[in-house]
Structures are given as structure tokens and as C-alpha cells.
Amino acid sequence: MAGMLYLVPTPIGNLGDISIRCRQTLEQADFIAAEDTRVTLKLLNHLGIKKSLVSYFEHNKAQKGDQIVGRILAGETCALVSDAGSPAISDPGEELVQQCAAAGITVCAIPGPCAVITALSISGQATGRFCFEGFLSTAKKNRRAHLESLKNEQRTMIFYEAPHKLCATLESMAEAFGPDRPISLCRELTKLHEEVIRTTLAGAMELYTQQPPKGEYVLVVAGAPVIEEPAATTVDAKDRVRELMEQGLSRKDAVKQTAQELNMPKNAVYEAALQD
Ligand code: SAM
Q1: Distance 179 CA to ligand 1 centre (A)
Q2: Using a 6 Å cutoff on CB, does residue 189 contact ligand 1?
Q3: Where are the beta strands (DSSP E) in the chain?
Q4: Residue 71 C-alpha to ligand 1 middle, in angstroms?
């Protein structure tokens, strides 16, 4: 019988965030596939777990993926971990999940630490609808094109960012979204120096002219403001009824169609049509 693949999230800064289930899964797995075996070894030592480790990262995933799938098909259970947070989210794992799914292997994702969700919850921005945009390109042209495509995005937008790229990113965001767009800069989440700076793009740019950005960041940017369509007026209704009647519709049909088009009650359109 085939084994299983478990996606095991690990703490993004506070070791206390490892869950009982994650710990048990790491203990019970036949082997652990890790983004960086040295980082995972430290975690395993902290948890008092001894387990066989294989590396699975960006530059060996094509070849290692096949080996891992082969071992699981032969009956072993694999726990996949990244350096921190949830595997497969801007981290290795996406392709392994696809490979396992294609091979008919059961994949189980254990819920747990994830920087994007931690940041969104604490950001103070609207959480009802959001989109995760991962890391922006380091190439200015591609970064700008990516942000330009989000200019009219109304959902809250979430980005991962490294401190040394932050100022360039804020500048590109201010160009695309305007300097007044609200942003929450969530840094060092779950760590000793956790901080959430709720400001605007211009405010953030100003802040980092005084002090260099430090630590790991998630940027939570407000979506574009919703522009309400002005409600149709009686003048619009009267003009539309006249236009439709000139095209040959009876008054009754013109009123009916106008009411539908302008989303107005039929009697209001009728009254508007009768006005001088
Ligand atoms: N898979 C991970 C997750 O789901 O949390 C994310 C891995 S990605 C390679 C690393 C990025 O996540 C960092 O560059 C930063 O943007 C964000 N990040 C990770 N830990 C963080 C923390 N403690 N505080 C703020 N951002 C963090």
C-alpha cells in the first residue's frame, strides 16, 4: 500500500507555535523532506526527534521529487517541511503536491504557521476578500508590470518582501497605486521585535529614509477604493424612454426596458417620462 505525503508547517519565529499534531507527524513519518536540512535539524533537535532527512529545494526538486514519490509509492510516509511556515506557499512543495496527486498519493496538509495569514489577521486592513501576490520580481520592469496589473484590484493585496528590496518596492507601489494608499508593514511576526506599521505608501517611504528596513516583512496593501456608480436620475430615465420610443418601441415597452437598464422602479421611470 502507498504511503502518504504530509505538509508540515513549522514556526515562523516562535518555536512554541509547533503544534502537537505537527510534532507527532514528524515523529511518525518514515522520513522528512526538508528545504534546508541544517535548519530542520535544529528544529528536530529542539523537539528531541531523530529522523532520516532528505533535502528538497528549488534547485533539486525535479530529481528529488521523483525519488520522494517513488519512496511513498513503495509504502513510506513523508513529512515535507520548509525553513519556516507552510510548505508550498512561496516555498518548495507546490510541484511535489502536484506529482503526488498525479500518482494517486494522498496528501494531507496540517494547518499551522503561515506568514501571509498571520499578517493579514493583524494588519487592520479589510480581510473579507484578499489576494496573495507572493514575492515581486527584483527586475524593476517586471515589478512595475506586476503592480500595474493590480492598479484596480479592490481586494486587499498581500506581498512577501525582503528588507533590502523594501524601499524599491514601496517606490514602485506608490507609482502604481498612488502615495496615499494605506499599507500595513508586518515585520518579525511572532518574534521578540514583532511590529505592525499601519501607514500609507508615502508614510512608509518617509519612515525608511530615516531608518533602514530590518527583518522579515509581509506587506498588506489596501485594495483600490470602490467607486460607486452614481444612481440613475429621472433625467436619464426620461431621455432613455424618449430614445427608445424614437426607435419604435411603445411607451409601455420603453418604460419597461429603461427600468431594467437603469435598475429603477417602473412607476418612477413612467413618471419621469411624463415630465416636461
Ligand atoms: N512558506 C512560508 C509561509 O507560509 O509563511 C513563507 C516562506 S517565504 C520563502 C519567506 C517570506 O515570508 C519572508 O521573506 C517574509 O516575507 C515572510 N515571512 C516569513 N516569516 C516571517 C515573519 N516572522 N515575519 C514577517 N514575515 C515573515
Answers
A1: 25
A2: yes
A3: 4-7, 31-34, 53-55, 78-81, 106-109, 130-135, 156-161, 182-187, 195-200, 217-221
A4: 30
77 CA → ligand 1 middle, Å: 27
Residues 256 and 191 in one domain: no
pLDDT at 227: 81
Q: Is residue 168 part of a domain?
A: yes
Q: What is the mean pLDDT of each run of 10 residues along the chain (276 residues)?
A: 93 97 98 98 97 96 96 98 98 97 98 98 98 97 98 98 97 98 98 98 96 96 87 83 93 92 89 82
Which residue out of 7, 8, 12, 57 has the highest number of ligand 1 atoms within 8 Å of its CB and is therefore the one to mutate? 12
Domain that holds residue 153: 115-221
Q: How many domains does the chain have?
A: 3
Same domain, residue pair 79 and 144: no
How many angstroms separate the most distant Cα atoms in the chain? 88
C-beta of 84 in contact with ligand 1 (< 6 A): yes
The answer on 103 and 37 residing in a single domain is yes
Domain boundary among the residues 85, 109, 133 is at: 109
pLDDT of residue 8: 98
The residue type at 39: V
